[in-house]
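Note to self: keep these together.
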Amino acid sequence: MKTLLLATTLRFTPILAATLIEGVSSALGIVMLIGFIFGTICVISGGFAIRRGDTDSGKLSIIGGLIIAGAPVIVKALFVSFGLGASTADVGTFQ
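Structure:
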């Protein structure tokens, strides 16, 4: 009985791992999309703040928005620089 259970578990493990990787990749894609949209909104609101005369707040909003919107690319660059280029969520190729 233990052998049958072990054989069944080992047979389904790659299927579960592949399904989990696909699910995590989809979730990360959605998070990156939301972050990009939020970062773009921060940059635009920073531009409006500068136009109103609040330059300090506007500059901080623009810098923060650029970091939020570009976070996936920044993280991918860090992964590649540390030799972990085969990450689950792919945002493009770096040389």
